[in-house]
Amino acid sequence: MSVTGPAGFRAAGVAAGIKSGGALDLALVVNDGPASTAAGVFTTNRVKAAPVLWSQQVLQERRLRAVVLNSGGANACTGPEGFQDTHATAEKVADVLGAGAIDVAVCSTGLIGERLPMDAVLSGVETAAKALDGTEQAASDAANAVLTTDTRAKQALATGDGWSVGGFAKGAGMLAPNMATMLSVLTTDAVIGGDDLERALREASRVTFGRLDVDGGTSTNDTVLVLASGASGVEVSAEDLTAVLTEVCTDLVRQLQADSEGATKAVDITVRGALSEDDAVHIGRTIAEDNLVKTALFGSDPNWGRIAMALGRSGVDIEADKVEIAANGVTLFAAGTRARDRSEADLSGRDIEIVVDLHLGEHQATILTTDLSHGYVEENSAYSS
Amino acid sequence: MSVTGPAGFRAAGVAAGIKSGGALDLALVVNDGPASTAAGVFTTNRVKAAPVLWSQQVLQERRLRAVVLNSGGANACTGPEGFQDTHATAEKVADVLGAGAIDVAVCSTGLIGERLPMDAVLSGVETAAKALDGTEQAASDAANAVLTTDTRAKQALATGDGWSVGGFAKGAGMLAPNMATMLSVLTTDAVIGGDDLERALREASRVTFGRLDVDGGTSTNDTVLVLASGASGVEVSAEDLTAVLTEVCTDLVRQLQADSEGATKAVDITVRGALSEDDAVHIGRTIAEDNLVKTALFGSDPNWGRIAMALGRSGVDIEADKVEIAANGVTLFAAGTRARDRSEADLSGRDIEIVVDLHLGEHQATILTTDLSHGYVEENSAYSS
């Protein structure tokens, strides 16, 4: 159960023919109200896909009736024609729902630089509208229709007191910093104002999607949307909503980490004792993106020298003699030199925890990442995606 | 012919037993004068190896009689004991040459976090001192003794009017931004003051070693040293020296690029039309370090969408609609959309040229990089280095 878990939502996922081979490739999530409050966070990439430009614009009203999503094409770097395609898609959804295009957000994912097959998209919208349903199966179909190189759907649900938050997400590569980093649609039946909804979404995204860094690649299409139907009749505070949203987003981001391209390890990098949270995040990301660290982890090698190298080049001022580096609970580096022999740290399992303590301040952050494997190279060199 | 090409220099490379298996692992380069002017540029990494801390200190005098270099161990993250090892090595070289330790620079390369076998190092210094010679073979032995995962020695020589510059370099992984990024020793018989020598080295390094970015990994040990003997008797200006030094460094950096770990492609990324050279360098590096770009290049795939993604996430302000992206002479992206079909760009050869024109200003820079191959993953996951 995900987006149809909260009351007031229907969903559908259909095979529109955008992808070859008859895979599900078009999803629709509809908010039946009574409220139609919404908020979104979008990629920080300067090159923004047409659907991002469109959705940012319509979200200014903090209101959405529906979201339409497609896989099989990112509709990025497609010029004014690509933007017209997004607009036409929103118009079509509005038509079949009896709404205005301004109440419809659009998300796309897939190869950059190719126009979408609009005949398939527009007829897919009609098919999806007929398939709309509040069932678990409908939500699952929608979650499956947005997948690209993902191997499985990512869905989550968490409950408050008389209300709930559900959501799905996709993303297996080009996964990196700054909020979004993929597509995700979240729903809630809580009663909440637009400003509070936006604040809750920003905060929940910042510490969840914003802490996943697989390959440094912030995509042109990254989007996280939340739709609030108010159907539970329960008014919630921004704080309560933030907590439950964060629970759902954490669940989704763990699923994204586990299923990212070629990953054989799920690696948590915690940077402690930093002068600020920003410092901790920046150092954690530098380590997470370092190919020498990532290949060592693929080899189950506690090569802490590479971690020391990466943290030293992050640009954050550190005192090398104060730093401690631990892997799976074994402190390998302390007081400027080797603490215990690295053979004592066992990294042979799937889950790896790296803790770097700077011993400078009180702040910390954890970045979720993966190793760099032959599978990643294979998947990203042998196929265009 | 490399470091012994200019008059006034002798070199040696010996098997000291630091590495197992009897490979060359200790090099000595000696300046016989009459002058002993010197300058150095060092890693910007906050975690600096003991030999870097030592050499930075002795170079404050702008004078060097000799450089001793070892492979088989980086002597980084080895605490005060590691610094004492470096000091003892410099003292030993000073003893055998009849000089002061303050006139001896030390460079080390290899695994981080392990102490050096000092018996082997100190007896190796004695062996090397006896082998010192001004021949081409001696220079070649020295160039070979500093190699780690390199598959071949990198040497270069260029001549001015009655004077010359020679040099060798090593480095196959952990190769990235900011001047040094590996070990290199350069020699010249030009007559030049210490300030001018330093200025010439900084400028030459900035546009050569500073533009190579294989994996973003700025090592703890990166060092470039230049020694000037004055033995030609020819006074040269800083400008003339910069030009010839740049020629030698360009030659060396091309050799580093060609031999870097697992590389199947030599990729030049030129960013044009930038508002500043810094912007061009920063965008070029972001593209060069992007794993999705690098894996596409490994697959000979002109996937310009990934280049557009990477340049959009660099943090530099760009106007997406003005950007042009070309691969091997074929413009693939222009005016915000696809220009020509990517099948028209042939990236199947070893050399690939990517040109990104921002159409915002007059500045440009070229970053040298490689692809990300199975070989890179294999070399960096299967062995500790």
UniProtKB/TrEMBL annotation, chains A, B:
A Pfam family this chain is assigned to: ArgJ
Catalytic activity: L-glutamate + acetyl-CoA = N-acetyl-L-glutamate + CoA + H(+); N(2)-acetyl-L-ornithine + L-glutamate = N-acetyl-L-glutamate + L-ornithine
GO biological process, one term: L-arginine biosynthetic process
Enzyme class: transferase
Keywords: Acyltransferase, Amino-acid biosynthesis, Arginine biosynthesis, Autocatalytic cleavage, Cytoplasm, Multifunctional enzyme, Transferase
Pathway annotation from the record: Amino-acid biosynthesis; L-arginine biosynthesis; L-ornithine and N-acetyl-L-glutamate from L-glutamate and N(2)-acetyl-L-ornithine (cyclic): step 1/1; Amino-acid biosynthesis; L-arginine biosynthesis; N(2)-acetyl-L-ornithine from L-glutamate: step 1/4
An annotated GO cellular component: cytoplasm
Active site (UniProt): 181
Residue sites binding substrate per the record: 148, 170, 181, 261, 380, 385
Site (Involved in the stabilization of negative charge on the oxyanion by the formation of the oxyanion hole): 109-110
Subcellular location: Cytoplasm
GO MF entries: L-glutamate N-acetyltransferase activity; L-glutamate N-acetyltransferase activity, acting on acetyl-L-ornithine as donor
Entry's EC annotation: 2.3.1.35, 2.3.1.1
Quaternary assembly: Heterotetramer of two alpha and two beta chains.
Function: Catalyzes two activities which are involved in the cyclic version of arginine biosynthesis: the synthesis of N-acetylglutamate from glutamate and acetyl-CoA as the acetyl donor, and of ornithine by transacetylation between N(2)-acetylornithine and glutamate.
Name of the protein in its database record: Arginine biosynthesis bifunctional protein ArgJ
Gene designation per UniProt: argJ
